[in-house]
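JOB MANIFEST
job_type = single_chain_structure
chain_count = 1
residues = 250
[input]
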Amino acid sequence: MSTDLQISFSGISLFPEMFTAVTEQGVVGRAIAKGRVKVDLINPRDFTQDKHRTVDDRPYGGGPGMLMKVEPLEKAIQFAQQKQPGKVIYLSPQGQTINHEMIKKLAQEQHLVLIAGRYEGIDERLISKHVDLELSLGDFVLSGGELGAMAIIDSVTRLLPEVLGHEESAVQDSFVDGLLDHPHYTRPEIYEGSKVPSVLLSGNHQKIEKWRLQQRLGRTWLKRPDLLKQRELTQEEQLLLEEFQSQYVE
């Protein structure tokens, strides 16, 4: 087992068992087994003082729902920080939407503390005092922040050196250079009458790379035109995109 630890995560959650979805299998599971990634799970219930291990309370001012209690959550954050100081992230619908550039920045950290909120959220004073960054998966609401925290763990881990089976995998993913990924094909060559594009069977790697670039440009134009507006195309890329677009002009 390697001891080359590259990053550690502290997940603060009332449902730590949920995290086994990423920690016990797949890319993250393998990275943990190799000693490159460490995931500690901290339950605020372990820092309660009453016999019922209460972790929620009513909000001041009334209204529906409950809030996570201040004291147990703060002690959980402090416990994580005492083990190793790190950036504290609160998964919240009000947070900045996560994108690839954000994940690249987080992958440079040595320790990330991920707070998975529950109920109506957490006390604003805790956010002001402890939270460095609020992040969100998108403009929708989940029952808790666990899925967002797991998404960060997975996406950060796959960017680490020597974690993926093929080092080029992360480099060629969607969003890495502002474009979506190209289509992928595997055996059989013909499936239900649909054939693999002939260029992929040609063995001409230069033509294949050109085709893949054109497909990436075209797919981004079709599915995420907003991304193209943020990217300055080279002359070759512009020509390839125009050729792709000509197929859709009636």
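[summary]
The chain has two domains: 7-157, 172-246.
The CA atoms of residues 118 and 144 lie 5 Å apart.
exit_status = 0
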